[in-house]
Design goal:
Structural class: mainly alpha
Number of strands: 0
Order of helices and strands: HHHHHH
Shape: elongated
Largest sheet: none
Bound molecules: heme C
Helix content: 55-70%
CATH architecture of one domain: Up-down Bundle
CATH class of one domain: Mainly Alpha
C-alpha cells in the first residue's frame, strides 16, 4: 500500500516529462550532447601517449647519468642507472610503439633491434665491473641511439659521451 502511494507521484512526474511537452528540451539535449563530447575528448587527451620527444628527454638524462656512474666506477650506481635506462626504453616501446616517425617500420621492432646488442654489451661490462669495457660499451649505446635517429630521418641528433653532468646533486663517486 505504501509503495503504491509512493509510486503514484513518480508516475505523474514521468507523465509530465513526455517528449514534446517542454519546448526547451531540444536545447537541453544539445547541451548534454556537447557536454558528453567534451568529456570524451578530455578522456582521450588524458589517456594519450606522452610525446616521443618528451620520452627522449628522459632517455637523454638517463644516458648521461649512466655515464657519470660508470666514469666514476661506481658499479652499484651504474647497475641502477642502466636498469633505469632500460625501463625508460621499454616505456618508449610500450607507449609509442607505433609512432609514425619510423613508419613503415614499427618503432616497437626497430628500437629493441637497434638498442639490445649495445645494452647487453653494457650489462656485461657493468656486471664485470670492467672500466675499459664500460667506456667502450657506452660508445656502442650512444651509437645505437644515433643510429635510430638516423633511421627516423633525424641523423642530426647525435648522441655522445657527456662532458659535464646534467645535474650534479646526485653523487657519482662510490
Ligand atoms: C626508436 C628509435 C630511437 C631510439 C632507439 C632513440 N631515439 Fe632519440 N629520438 C628518436 C626520434 C624519432 C626523435 C625525434 C622525436 C621528435 O620528433 O620529437 C628522437 C629525439 C631525441 C632527442 C631530442 C629530444 C628533443 O626534443 O630535443 C634526444 C636528446 C634523444 N632522442 C636521445 C636519445 C637517447 C639518449 C637515446 C638512446 C639511449 C635515444 N634517443 C634512442 C628516436 C629514437
Amino acid at each position: 500500500m505504501r509503495l503504491r502511494l509512493l509510486l503514484l507521484p513518480c508516475l505523474l512526474l514521468l507523465a509530465a516529462c513526455q517528449p514534446g511537452d517542454r519546448p526547451d528540451q531540444g536545447a537541453e539535449l544539445a547541451a548534454l550532447q556537447a557536454e558528453i563530447a567534451k568529456l570524451k575528448s578530455d578522456l582521450a587527451a588524458a589517456s594519450a601517449p606522452p610525446e616521443l620527444g618528451q620520452q627522449m628527454l628522459e632517455l637523454q638524462i638517463r644516458h648521461a647519468r649512466l655515464w657519470q656512474a660508470g666514469e666514476s666506477r661506481n658499479w652499484m650506481l651504474a647497475q641502477f642507472q642502466l636498469a633505469e635506462l632500460r625501463e625508460s626504453l621499454n616505456g618508449v616501446v610500450e607507449l609509442n610503439g607505433e609512432h609514425p616517425s619510423l613508419q613503415p617500420q614499427q618503432l616497437s621492432t626497430v628500437l629493441p633491434a637497434i638498442m639490445n646488442p649495445a645494452l647487453s654489451q653494457m650489462q656485461a661490462a657493468v656486471d664485470a665491473r670492467d672500466g675499459a669495457a664500460f667506456d667502450a660499451s657506452y660508445d656502442a649505446v650512444s651509437k645505437a641511439c644515433t643510429d635510430c635517429h638516423a633511421s627516423a630521418d633525424h641523423g642530426f641528433l647525435v648522441i655522445e659521451r657527456p662532458r659535464t653532468p646534467v645535474l650534479d646533486n646526485l653523487r657519482a663517486a662510490p
